[in-house]
Amino acid sequence: MRVLIAEDEVVMADAIAEGLRLQSLAVDTVHDGDAALQRLAVNDYDVLVLDRDLPVVHGDDVCRAVVAAGGTVRVLMLTAAGELDDRVRGLALGADDYLPKPFAFAELVARVRALGRRSRPAAPPVLERAGIRLDTTRREVFRDGQYVAVSRKEFAVLEELLRADGAVVSTEELLERAWDEHTDPFTNVIRTTVMTLRRKLGPPAVIATVTGVGYQIP
Predict the structure, then answer these.
(1) CA 210, 213, 214, 215 torsion: positive or negative?
(2) Of 2, 104, 106, 103, residue with least CA distance to 47
(3) Which of 72, 82, 107, 189 is a plausible cystine mate for 100, CB 3.0–4.6 Å?
């Protein structure tokens, strides 16, 4: 899942981003509405965490633009105003969900994940294939019943391969879904991550390389 955080309070934006990255999500941050619109125009995001009171372009206008574009990105609006009328106005703009500040981080994560599931084809919370069992809720991986300790990025890559249900996932798609925009598109990070995953999952290898295309779990 890829998330864009549009929040003008830099410390808060960084804290939210780091917390979501610990949940194996790819996260980008911006601090004004114009920058948010620019990122949305060039990157495919599952969820936009949108502060309503953004500078340059107001968060309300960003939300209107997102809705008018008709894409699949889901909007979670953040605001310091928690009154019912404020929540109603935010949702009336087209936001998918609304969370007043201050908020519990666990609730933010739960809402982001719920919106992310709505932006993509539905998948069960537990993915299983070729002896691999990946629990997206508990963030656990098992191979033939044995627990496998994986890193956040390894988990994200494995989840994308399992979600593909046997189809090939390109390197570009893996970069898009599991890393943020600061990752060099010519890096070998995908190849390295897949190699490490193969080693951790053990023999026989379940992740196949499709030369010139990407990877799959047949």
Answers:
(1) negative
(2) 2
(3) 82
The total of other beta-carbon atoms located within 10 Å of residue 40's CB is: 20
CA 176, 172, 148, 118 torsion-angle sign: positive
Structure pTM? 0.62
Assigned token pair, 127 = 């993915």
Helices then strands, each counted (H, E), the chain? 8, 12
Whether the Cβ atoms of residue 45 and residue 3 lie closer than 8 Å to each other: yes
CA dist 11 → 8, 15, 22, 171, 193 (Å): 9, 6, 17, 32, 30
Q: Between these two residues, 133 and 117, which has the higher pLDDT value?
A: 133
Structure tokens belonging to residue 69: 């574009």
Q: How many CB atoms lie within 10 A of CB 61?
A: 15
Q: What pLDDT digit, counting tens, does each position of 126-185 carry?
A: 899 999 999 988 889 999 999 999 998 899 899 999 988 899 998 888 887 777 666 665
Distance, in Å, from the CA atom of 99 to the CA atom of 174, rounded to the nearest integer, reads 30
Burial of residue 172 (CB within 10 Å: 0-12, 13-18, 19+) is exposed
Tokens of residue 75, six digits: 């909007």
Which of 117, 121, 119 is closest to 136 using CA atoms?
Answer: 117
Closest CA to 161 of 148, 150, 171, 151: 171
Residue 24 is encoded by which pair of tokens? 């194996």
